[in-house]
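Following up on my earlier thread - several people asked me to post the actual chain instead of describing it. Fair enough. Here it is, all 134 residues.
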Amino acid sequence: MSQEGIELLRSAIEAWNQREPDRVLSYATPEIEWMPAGPAAVERAVYRGRDEVASGIAAAFETWNVFELQEAGLSDLGDSLLWLGRVKMRGSSSGVELDLQFAIHTAIRDGKFESIHTFLSWQEGRDAAGLPNG
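Reply from S.P.:
Thanks for posting it. Predicted structure:
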């Protein structure tokens, strides 16, 4: 993976935090696969293709009026990236607030995201990326 991939991921997270779903999707292949973690999986466990992912993002933003990612670390794994940080969320109708560990394991093909899998613990992200316990 290159610096270009790292910048792509950081740009996508910035777009997410600014609640710009069209910009998030502009970084994805048409065949994108998104597996959201826990409370982000509003409608289903896996979204495939830009239309499904767009629907999933819309549902997440409707359910959570705060949904922000904060980076703690990023690892270049050659053919993928592992982002570790925190997610801060607040329910739109419930007002429930969450502040949790969050991990993103992503594969990039031809300068776009091919898959994005998210996890509610850093260890789950490490496990998915094939890394030893941290």
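The longest strand covers residues 64-76. That should answer part of your original question.
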